[in-house]
Amino acid sequence: MTPNTAGSPGISTGPSSNPGTSSGTSGGTSDVLGDSAVTGGTSGPSPGPPAPPNGTAGAPGAADGGQEASAARPSLLRTVAAARALARPEGARAVVMTMGALHAGHAALVRAARERVGPEGQVVVTVFVNPLQFGPGEDLDRYPRTLDADVELAGREGADVVFAPAAREVYPEGVPRVTLAAGTMGERLEGASRPGHFDGMLTVVAKLLHLTAPDLAFFGEKDAQQLALISRMVRDLDFPVEIVGVPTVREPDGLALSSRNGYLSEAERVSARALSRALFAAGERAGEGPRAVLETARAVLRGAAAAQPPVTTDYVALVDPSDFTELTETTGGPRPAVLAVAARVGSVRLIDNVRLTLGRSDTAGANEPQRAGR
């Protein structure tokens, strides 16, 4: 994966001891912490080579609620004590954070992590349904929980360890009294639609980074605002971890891979393709500046609003990838940008984005999208 991050604010390609954001090596979509609500997907991953467990010695055994393991599965840790006792690998440790209900997008993240750390490294997948991320109308109890299937998928794609704590392990006193605040950066776009969501997301990511102590953490670029906020948190609070952004995996019809796609009817899915069409058509006009990009995207979405079933746009915005402030004019030559869209088709709310360079007519590699299973 080689997204166009050169020259982007807050981007780092240095060693893992330097916080920042770098590029991964494989396509992926997160649905990790942001694109969750109450829905879950069922699409399976493409097969990947299994990797032998690394660095699992030293964790408590299953008898005391700590670690469960078998030859065919990664080690399963259920307690904070077990996570803290996990032995360090000879190489680097990578973490992939999820809320479970894993699908092919998550599989791509695990594969990217496995490829990056190599056979001497260790890949930890976290599965935790974070109650702090659920707002009014988002039913925590209805969120799908498929731990057995998640462990199997993670193992097939190269994970060594799955850390799946209960809420009482992560929040032993209930709702924590001290949480992180995303600030104004977390109040825009997705933050405006889901107030408080990003505060809960950053709080649990910070806790999981402390508990898993990774050298690298992998997140999908599909949740671009989430990725930007995590990268900012790591820089501002001096977390010793490298944040790796992994490009969005797309369905064969161009739709960004998401657990929510399974809730679309056949007709709704046809209408939903307008999101990726709008983004890629707009990206072809990146060389003409922000106005041309936004006009093109909006024109495609206006047409989709007249379709049956219609696409109802929540927002379409062109933003700086480092802080998600909206871009209106191009100054100082080519600059990186994210074109983001959110829309509703029927009862399903979808998000998508592409990375592009204003002043250059392409979509920063996104015009050759990663497909599920590649």
**Overall form:** globular
SSE series: EEEHEHEHEHHHEHEEHHHEEEE
User: How many domains?
Assistant: 2
Q: Roughly what is the average pLDDT, rounded to an integer?
A: 82
Q: Please state how the strands of the largest beta sheet are arranged side by side.
A: 1-8-7-4-5-6-3-2
What proportion of the residues form beta strands (DSSP E)?
Answer: 15-25%
Q: Report the sheet with the most strands, covering strand number, pairing sense and barrel closure.
A: 8 strands, mixed
Report the count of strand segments: 13
Terminal-residue CA separation: 11 Å
Query: Which regions are unreliable across 5 or more consecutive residues at pLDDT < 50?
Result: 1-21, 23-31, 34-65, 67-71, 364-374
Structural class: alpha/beta
CATH class of the largest domain: Alpha Beta
The CATH architecture of the largest domain comes to 3-Layer(aba) Sandwich
Q: How would you explain this protein's 3D organization?
A:
By secondary structure, the protein is an alpha/beta fold. The chain folds into two domains: 20-250, HUPs (Rossmann fold, 3-Layer(aba) Sandwich); 261-367, Pantoate--beta-alanine Ligase, Chain: A,domain 2 (2-Layer Sandwich), CATH 3.30.1300. Helices cover 27% and strands 20% of the residues. The protein is built from ten helices and 13 strands. It has helices at 80-85, 104-117, 147-156, 167-170, 190-193, 197-212, 224-236, 266-272, 274-283, 290-305; strands at residues 20-23, 67-70, 73-77, 93-98, 122-127, 161-163, 216-220, 242-246, 249-250, 311-319, 335-345, 348-358, 370-371. The strands form three sheets. It has an eight-stranded mixed β-sheet with strand order 1-8-7-4-5-6-3-2, sandwiched between helices. It has a three-stranded antiparallel β-sheet with strand order 10-11-12. The longest helix is centred in the middle third of the chain and has 16 residues, at 197-212. The termini are close together.
